[in-house]
Amino acid sequence: MSAAATANQRAEGAAGQSPLAPVLEIEDLSITYRSRAGDVNAVRHVDLALRPGEVVGLAGESGSGKSTLALGAVRLLRPPAVITSGRVIYRGRRIGEGGFDVLAADADELRRLRWREISIVFQSAMNALNPVLRIRDQLGDVIDAHMPLRREAKRARLESLLDLVGIPRERLRSYPHELSGGMRQRVMIAMALAVEPEVVIMDEPTTALDVVVQREILEQVAELREELGFAMLFITHDLSLLLELADRIMILYAGQLAELGSALAIRNATAHPYTAGLLDSFPSVRGPRRALSGIPGSPPDMRELPRGCPFTPRCDFARAQCSEVTMTPLTVGEGHVSTCPFVGQDELAQARAARRRGAAL
Amino acid sequence: MRFVARRLGFYLVAAWAAITINFFIPRLMPGNPVAALLGKYQGLPPDSARTLEVEFGIGHQGTLLHQYWIYLGNLFQGNLGVSSSQYPEKVTTVIGQVLPWTLALVGTATVIAFLLGTLLGIFAAWRRGGWLDQSLPVATFMQATPYFFVGLAAIEVLSVKLGVFPYGGGSAIGLSPGFNWTFLSSAFNHSVLPATTIIITSFAGWMLTMRNVMITTIGEDYVLAAQAKGLPRRRIIFSYAARNAILPNIAGFSLAIGYVVAGALLTEYVFSYPGIGLMLYNAVTSDDYPLTQGIFLVISLAILLACLLADAVYVLADPRARTRGSA
Amino acid sequence: MSVAVTLEPPPAAQAALPRGRGRWAALPLKAKIGFAILGLYVLIAIFGPTLAPHDPSATKIVTQAAAPSFSHLLGTTSFGQDLLSQVLVGIRSTIVLGLLAATIATVLAVLVGVTAGYVGGAVDELLMLVTNIFLVLPALPLLIVILGYLPHTGEIATAIVLSALGWAWGARVIRAQTLALRNRDYVAAARETGERAWRIIAFEIIPNEVSLIAAGFIGVALYAILTSVALAFLGLTDVNSWSIGVVLYWAQSQGALELGAWWWWAIPGVLVALLGMSLVLINYGLDELGNPRLRETGGRVDDRGHVILRGRGARVQIVRLRRRRQRHTAVTDPTPVVIEARP
After folding, report:
1. Which residues of A touch chain C, with CB atoms under 8 Å apart?
2. What is the 3-state secondary structure (H, E, C) of B65-105?
3. Contact of C337 with C317, CB cutoff 8 Å
4. Which of A358, B109, B228, B236 could form a disulfide with B198 if both were Cys (CB 3.0 to 4.6 A apart)?
5. Interface of B with C in 114-133 (CB under 8 A)
6. Taking phi first (over 0 means left), then psi (-120 to 50 degrees means alpha), and beta for anything else, what does residue A35 get?
7. Does any CB of chain A come closer than 8 Å to the CB of residue B220?
8. Mutation test of the interface with chain A: which of C337, C338, C339, C342, choosing the one with the most A Cβ atoms within 10 A?
């Protein structure tokens, strides 16, 4: 994979850092929403290490905590969200040795981190763009804040940013409501790359778009990553997308880790029943026709979680001991962990094959 | 631009409605004030009789439509008749004397109240739970307080007891209007209390609505995006949040104007301030029908003009309104 | 007499009122206080005249107004009349007028608004034109002019005139909501199955607009009360029938200020302000019900401002998170980190 090679080459050039030191290291992070009606532990003791130039996909159903995890890690969540455990260390090339302790920083220190090091592409571009500012102003203010340029240089940069994402330059003078959905999302991507961050968090960037535009944008994103070499945290509920796009994939359920591994391993050597269920719920274009299976039931009420593994009520392989599980990640392969101690990869593979045979149309 | 054109069309219709209502009011009132007038004005010089013709078409004995036509004709010639309580002054002259006072006082005070209220609303929303936010109940109380009550209280404390500010009136007695320091400083001195009254009672309304809209706006994704972009706090507050939050307030300005006028009227009454509001009161209580109707017309048209201006400002402020066809 | 312009809520944000008993509990504190105060006034309106110790118009030969004392709890006017009695009797008139005007105006507003929103098309355009014209006409000047012409100005006449100028705002808001509701699935379904229009309106649409109608009612009541007090104060209504505004009129015209009889004008004024405030509180409370973001932020963050980190060798490291103690948060402060030290 050329992306990883590029990333490794870059990393070797950085002074004093081992090539594989994670650029964003999240350790034991827990986030709670406090409210009078009861606390919601949206994220519970999650570890995630993002390496330079890598693409990590974050998958899960709505409410699984993926956006909370990503936004919480950079402290963008608003009250009543509170971070209740963990560490987040950022080690970009521009930050000195020892890294940047995100959780201990105050607002002014965090501003150094924002956008210049970690930027975000939000889900709905129509809502994330300021309706009363022209595109050039919205792209420009981030340049002014982090990388001040003189007028001519700034204009040139703005134009090259739009070129980068394939939008005509005249659109700099437009307002967001004058652009199409796909164009708006491209503007968001251009904005995220405006000051050359090390990490880009993409929060369901294509969910609101139709499949054709989705494909165009994702291809664009992949190209840009090749060119600029940033690391990416890609959040989506669409696992099939991640299988193509991501290097590694983390699957969250009810705020906790279900499975984490390389895209290949997740696809071919699934180790968690939930992942298996997800994989079986979308059709593949090739191969024999089969009836789709979903995952019966719905996500749990986060205010009242049962003991042990939260997936138990919906799991085909549930057993009595599931309520005693401690949810610690267990290694099942090289860089591949799962929190289900009972179901082995082979057992899962067999069960899935049997299901596919039974469901063949 | 279609938006402005459509609004302009509406205001023209509304202006016509105001003019027509003005025409019909005296004719629809029970007791037929016109006939009463006739009795009252018998024996007056021919000019006043002519005024009655202008205003009420008396003497023409034509149909209602005919009278209406004459009324419209006079109106467009700028002829509003002759005042009966200030005979022989023309209505337009009388209005011309008092209108600048009102505009100066009320215009300035309203702008200050709007700006003050809006700014305070922005900060109240920004620091939830801060002292501004917690002073909301006080603001709510002030919003519901009648204008004249605050005016009376102000007079009582600052004028009667402490003697800091004058009791009332537009300027010290005996001074004639002119652009000289004596007059202007006296006029300013006399306008402090009324202006403060207006500001105190009205800024709370602007503040509360701005705060509420700001809170909703702050929850929008683009403000979160601005935060994520690491922009300076001032830019987030003003260019992202407030700039959007103020739009409903501008749109609502047209509706608040009615209350502004009401408040102005009462304030002028309490402070004996020589503006158009006090003049209206005097005209009504002295049965000066021509003057009453003239003032009502001027006030209505002025309000419509202000609303049109507010709409124009809105179009400038919200780029989405420029492409939308209708309000 | 500034009244906040309650802005048109985006129809989607209108949360349905909880049914039954939960409805009272779900009201924010603001609204409950408002209702309590309003309830007090209504009680006085009902029982006031019977509780009044003296006839409000009964005069005693005095030359000056007397300050509050045991025999006259709120003092007397310059005619020797008991202010307490005047107030107790006057509140009834003020409340009745306000409620009457609000009722008429709300009925009108619902009729016009629902019709315009539901029927649409040319009817909608026409109704909205009329509504908008009424909206921009200045209320107080027009009322002054009309009342100046009317030979006798009884309560009913004033109420009618007040409501004629107060229905327009509610009509616009209700129309907007009706438009939005009309396109909802369940309404479309009802139309498809051939349910008759009036039934749809009565059973599907209006129940979902109740909070809006209530807010409109309160708003018009507020405007009607303040305006009627103003008109009475100016002496344009019948100055011999007692209402709070009339009390203030007499205070003003008899020179209460010069006499130093502060109780004469201050107390009635405060009473009006309190009544107005109760209505404003109710309205804002209803606003918050429909838009939960406006409520006090539920999550109170631990305000010690300290973060306790457990290091690798069980060393406890205390890091000051904020520079000084803050009981509030600026909205865009970074997510707070509050790590409970594990035992």
Report:
1. 31, 33-37, 72, 75-87, 103-107, 110
2. HHHHHHHHHHHHCCCCCECCCCCCCEHHHHHHHHHHHHHHH
3. no
4. B109
5. 125-130, 133
6. beta
7. yes
8. C337
Interface touch C135/B212, C-beta < 8 Å: no
Are the C-beta atoms of B206 and B257 separated by less than 8 Å? no
C300 shares contact with chain A (CB less than 8 Å): yes
- What is the nearest CA distance from A64 to chain B, expressed in angstroms? 20
Tokens for B149, please give them: 């009550």
Q: Are A6 and A54 in contact (CB under 8 A)?
A: no
C65, two tokens: 């107004």
Residue of B nearest to A134 (CA): B319
Mean pLDDT of chain B: 78
Q: Give chain A's radius of gyration (CA, Å).
A: 21
* Segments in chain C forming alpha helices (H): 22-26, 29-51, 83-119, 121-136, 139-149, 155-164, 167-182, 185-192, 197-200, 210-233, 244-253, 256-259, 262-290
- Reading chain C (343 residues) residue by residue, the pLDDT tens digits are 333 333 444 333 344 444 444 556 667 777 888 889 889 888 888 888 887 777 777 777 665 667 777 777 777 777 778 888 888 888 888 898 889 999 999 999 999 988 888 888 888 888 988 888 888 888 888 888 877 777 666 677 778 888 888 888 888 888 888 888 887 777 778 778 877 777 777 877 787 788 888 888 988 898 889 888 888 888 887 777 888 888 888 888 887 777 777 788 888 888 888 898 888 888 888 877 766 666 654 333 333 333 333 222 322 333 333 444 444 556 677 888 877 655 4
CB pairs under 8 A between A and B: 76
**Interchain CB contact of C307 with A (< 8 Å):** yes
The string over C307-337, giving b where at least 16 C-beta atoms fall within 10 Å of a residue's C-beta and e elsewhere, is bebeeeeeeeeeeebbeeeeebbebbbbbbb
**Among the partner residues A112, A128, A146, nearest to B225 by beta-carbon distance:** A128
Query: Cβ of A81 and C329 within 8 Å?
Result: no
pTM recorded for the entire structure: 0.80
Q: Shortest CB distance from B244 goes to which of A132, A178, A191?
A: A132
Tell me how far apart the alpha carbons of residues B133 and B191 are, in angstroms, rounded to a whole number. Answer: 31
User: Is the separation of the CB atoms in A64 and A252 below 8 Å?
Assistant: yes
Region of residue A32 (left: phi > 0; alpha: psi -120 to 50; beta: else)? beta
**Minimal C-alpha gap between B241 and chain A (Å):** 9
Interchain pair B230, A124: CB under 8 A: no
Distance CA C287, CA C292 (A): 9
Q: Give the residue among A267, A217, A274, A270 at the shortest CA–CA distance from A247.
A: A267
Residue type, C149: Y
Distance between CA B77 and CA B80 in Å, rounded? Answer: 9
- Using a CB–CB cutoff of 8 Å, tell me whether C64 touches chain B: no
Rounded to 5 degrees, φ, ψ at C318 are -105, 125
Say if the Cβ atoms of C148 and B258 lie within 8 Å: no
Helix (H/G/I), strand (E/B), else coil: A51: coil
Q: Which residue of chain C is at minimal alpha-carbon distance from A110?
A: C334
Between positions 173 and 202 of B, the ones with CB within 8 A of C are 201-202
Cross-chain Cβ contact A145/B229 below 8 Å = yes
Helix (H/G/I), strand (E/B), else coil: C255: coil
